[in-house]
Design brief:
- A six-stranded mixed beta sheet has the order 5-6-7-3-8-9, sandwiched between helices. Strands 14-15-16-12-17-18 form a six-stranded mixed beta sheet. It has a four-stranded mixed beta sheet with strand order 13-10-11-19, covered by helices on one side.
- The protein is of the alpha/beta class and 645 residues long.
- Helix content is 45%, strand content 19%.
- The chain has 20 helices and 19 strands.
- Helix 9 runs antiparallel to helix 10 (272-284).
- The longest helix is centred in the last third of the chain and has 49 residues, at 554-602.
- It starts with a strand and ends with a helix.
Length: 645
C-alpha cells in the first residue's frame, strides 16, 4: 500500500534519512519511534506530500486514501462539532450547511438533499454521533461552533472526523495526548477493529503494546523494523545492539591487526607489497557502525525536600459539591509519609477534585484540611498554569527559587527534558503547551515539596522525557500522589493504589499489579477506570489511610520486615559486585601491563631473529586480548548491575 524506497532527506543541514526504506501493507499496525528530532514528523510530511526527498521515492497504491491527525494546533472554523466530524468531503460539508440554512421547499434545499444522499450522509451522521459520544462529546455539544472549544476538544473533533472517514492509511501523531481515560479506553478498543492500516507516533507504551504488530525505529538514518509490540521491540533491540557491538568489536580488532602489520612492515622492501595489501583490505571492508549509546535518564541526584512528619496531610469530614452535584460527603483521608499512590477510577468519580482538595486549590466547603508537621505541598497542574512567568527565559524559570541550583545543573536537567542549546534562552511566552509542561516539571523537580500532587504528568512528554521524570521520581524522598493513564509510568512508580468510585475511597496496600489481582480487572488499562460513575447519592464512606496500617494488622508488619530484608540483601549484593569489580580491575591492569611489554618486544627487530620467540609472543598477545575482552565485558555488566542495585 505504501512503499518507501531508498529515500535520502536532509533538514536544517542534517541528514535525517539516508537510503531508508519501508513497506506498509493493508491492515498493518505500525508504531513509529525514535528520539526527539530523529525525523518522525518529517517522515509523515514526506508521506503526505508536504515535503520531498532529495533521492529515492515514496509511492502509494492507486486510490489509497490517507488521513492525518497532527499532535496539536488543528484548525477550527465556523463549522459545528458535528459538521467537523462529518467533513469527510467538501461536497458533504456544503450539503449539510445548505440543508441547515435553507427552506425545505427551495430548489437549493432539494439539490443539497440529493448531494447529501449521494455522499452517504444518512449513514455518515449517525456514525459521527456514535464516535463523538465515544470521545466524550455530549449531544448538546454537537451543534456548538468548533471554534468555541478548547484546543484539546478541537483535536478530539478532528480525530472523530478521521474515524468517520476511515482512510486506508491512518497517520496519528501522539493521538492520546488530548484524551481522558474513558475516551482512551474507547479509542483503543475502536482501533483494534479499524479496517485500514495505522502508522502512529505515541509515547504511551501500553497503547503501543495493545495495538501494534510492528515497531519501526528511526536509527542510523535508516528505518529499522521490529516485529511485535513495544515490549518485543525493547527485547529485540537489545539483542540487535549486542550483536552489532560484537560484530563492531571483531571488525575493529581485525582492522587493528591489519593496520599493525602494515605499519610494521611497510618500510621493509620485502614486506611492502603485503603491507599495502593489508591497507587495501581495510579500505574494501564494509565498515560496521558502532552502536549509538541509548539516551539515559538523569545521572545526578536531584535536590531533596525536607522530611515531613509521619502524617503528611489529613482530610476530616470533607463535603464538596459543584452546585447540586455532590462529589464528596463526609470524606475522611489520612496520607502518611513516603508513599507513592496512584488514584484510579472513572471520569467524574472525583480524582482530580481530591487532588485539588489536598493541594488547597479548592477551598474546603465543609470539614477540615490539616497539614502535618513540616509538610510542604506542590501541585503540578496549578504549578504549570500559574507559576510560569511569560517574560522569563527557560533557564531563568528553572533557576527561579530561593536556593537556585547551578546553571550547569539546571541546563543538564533541562537537556533531559529536551531543552537543549539555545532553547534555554527562549521566553516561556513562546513555548508550546508540551514545552510548558516539561518546563514546569523541571522547575518542580529542582525545588520539590515533600508532598507532591501530580495530575497527568506525562501528557505531552515523549518516551525520553518520561524516563527522565521516572528517574527523578525514583530518587524522590517525599510523598507522592498522582493521576495518570500511562500504565508503564504507574507500574514504575506507584507503591499503593487508591480507588475513587462515586465519591468513596478504597485503598489497596500494594503496587499496581497487586491492585489488578485484587480488583480482578480485565486489563491494565481498563482497571484505571473501573467502578461506577459519580452519582448524586449518599454513599457510605469509610475512613481511608494512605500509609502504614494501624497496629494489629499483621500484613503491614510483614511487609516492613520483608522490605528490610530486601534492603539488606540488596546492600550485600552491591558489596559483592563491587568486590568482584575490584578483583577484575586488578586482573585487567596486570594483563594490560603484560600486553604493553609484549607489544614493545614485538616492535624490536631482534625479536624476529630469536628462533620462534615472536610466534610465541603473538600467541600470548592474542590470548591476552581475548581474555581482556571477556574481562572488560564482565566488568561493564557488573557496573550496570551495581547501578541498578
Amino acid at each position: 500500500m505504501l512503499t518507501i524506497s531508498q529515500i535520502t532527506k536532509t533538514f536544517g543541514g542534517r541528514t535525517l534519512f539516508e537510503e531508508a526504506s519501508l513497506q506498509v501493507n493493508r491492515g498493518d499496525r505500525v508504531g513509529l519511534v525514535g528520539p526527539n528530532g530523529a525525523g518522525k514528523s518529517t517522515l509523515f510530511s514526506l508521506i503526505l506530500g508536504e515535503a520531498f526527498p532529495e533521492s529515492g521515492r515514496l509511492s502509494l497504491e492507486k486510490s489509497v486514501t490517507v488521513g492525518f491527525l497532527p499532535q496539536e494546533n488543528a484548525p477550527a472554523g465556523e463549522e459545528t462539532v458535528l459538521e467537523m466530524a462529518c467533513a469527510i468531503s467538501r461536497e458533504l460539508t456544503a450539503a449539510q450547511r445548505t440543508l441547515r440554512t435553507t427552506d425545505e421547499t427551495s430548489e437549493g434545499h432539494h439539490a443539497a438533499l440529493h448531494a447529501f444522499d449521494e455522499q452517504g450522509g444518512w449513514q455518515i451522521e449517525p456514525k459521527a454521533k456514535r464516535i463523538l459520544a465515544g470521545l466524550a462529546f455530549r449531544e448538546s455539544d454537537f451543534d456548538r461552533p468548533a471554534k468555541t472549544l478548547s484546543g484539546g476538544w478541537v483535536m478530539r473533533a478532528h480525530l472523530a472526523r478521521l474515524l468517520v472517514q476511515a482512510p486506508d492509511l491512518l497517520l496519528l501523531d501522539e493521538p492520546t495526548n488530548h484524551l481522558d481515560l474513558d475516551s482512551l479506553v474507547w479509542f483503543q478498543e475502536y482501533l483494534q477493529d479499524y479496517p485500514g492500516a495505522i502508522l502512529m507516533i505515541s509515547h504511551d507504551r501500553e497503547f503501543l503494546n495493545q495495538l501494534v504488530g510492528s515497531i519501526v525505529e528511526i536509527a542510523h538514518r535508516r528505518l529499522q523494523r521490529y516485529r511485535g509490540n513495544w515490549d518485543n521491540y525493547v527485547e529485540q533491540k537489545a539483542a540487535r545492539e549486542e550483536q552489532q557491538l560484537a560484530a563492531y568489536k571483531n571488525q575493529q580488532r581485525e582492522i587493528a591487526s591489519l593496520q599493525a602489520f602494515a605499519d610494521r612492515f611497510r618500510a621493509k622492501a620485502s614486506k611492502a607489497s603485503q603491507a599495502q595489501s593489508k591497507l587495501k583490505q581495510i579500505d574494501r571492508m564494509e565498515k560496521i557502525e558502532a552502536p549509538v549509546a541509548r539516551e539515559k535518564t538523569v545521572h545526578f541526584r536531584f535536590p531533596q525536600p525536607p522530611r515531613s512528619g509521619q502524617r503528611v496531610i489529613t482530610l476530616k469530614g470533607i463535603q464538596h459539591a459543584y452546585g447540586e452535584l455532590v462529589v464528596y460527603r463526609d470524606l475522611n483521608l489520612t496520607v502518611e509519609r513516603d508513599h507513592r499512590t496512584v488514584l484510579v477510577g472513572p471520569n467524574g468519580a472525583g480524582k482530580s477534585t481530591l487532588l485539588k482538595l489536598l493541594a488547597g486549590v479548592l477551598p474546603v466547603q465543609s470539614g477540615a484540611r490539616e497539614l502535618g508537621h513540616n509538610a510542604k505541598v506542590g501541585y503540578f497542574s496549578q504549578f504549570r498554569v500559574e507559576m510560569l512567568s511569560p517574560k522569563m527565559t527557560v533557564l531563568e524559570t528553572a533557576r527561579d527559587m530561593a536556593n537556585p541550583v547551578s546553571e550547569q545543573t539546571a541546563r543538564t536537567v533541562l537537556g533531559s527534558f529536551l531543552f537543549r542549546g539555545d532553547d534555554v534562552f527562549k521566553t516561556t511566552a513562546v513555548l508550546s503547551g508540551g514545552e510548558k509542561t516539561r518546563l514546569a516539571l523541571v522547575k518542580l523537580l529542582l525545588d520539590p515539596p515533600n508532598l507532591l500532587l501530580m495530575d497527568e504528568p506525562t501528557t505531552h512528554l515523549d518516551v525520553g522525557s518520561i524516563d527522565a521524570l521516572l528517574g527523578a521520581l525514583q530518587q524522590y524522598d517525599g510523598t507522592l500522589m498522582f493521576i495518570s493513564h500511562d500504565v508503564y509510568f504507574i507500574r514504575a512508580i506507584a507503591t499503593s493504589v487508591l480507588q475513587v468510585n462515586a465519591g468513596a475511597l478504597t485503598p489497596y496496600a500494594g503496587d499496581y499489579n497487586y491492585y489488578l489481582e485484587k480488583s480482578r480487572a480485565t486489563s491494565a488499562r481498563a482497571a484505571l477506570t473501573s467502578g461506577g460513575r459519580l452519582v448524586n447519592a449518599q454513599p457510605t464512606l469509610p475512613s481511608s489511610t494512605i500509609g502504614p496500617k494501624p497496629a494489629g494488622m499483621r500484613e503491614t508488619r510483614e511487609q516492613r520486615r520483608t522490605a528490610a530484608e530486601q534492603r539488606k540483601l540488596q546492600a550485600k549484593t552491591l558489596r559483592d559486585r563491587q568486590q568482584q569489580m575490584r578483583e577484575l580491575e586488578m586482573r585487567i591492569m596486570t594483563l594490560e601491563a603484560r600486553q604493553k611489554e609484549i607489544s614493545t618486544e614485538l616492535e624490536k627487530p631482534e625479536t624476529y631473529e630469536a628462533g620462534g620467540g615472536a610466534m610465541q609472543m603473538n600467541r600470548e598477545l592474542l590470548s591476552i586480548r581475548e581474555e581482556l575482552e571477556k574481562l572488560n565485558e564482565k566488568w561493564e555488566q557488573l557496573g550496570q548491575l551495581a547501578e541498578v542495585t
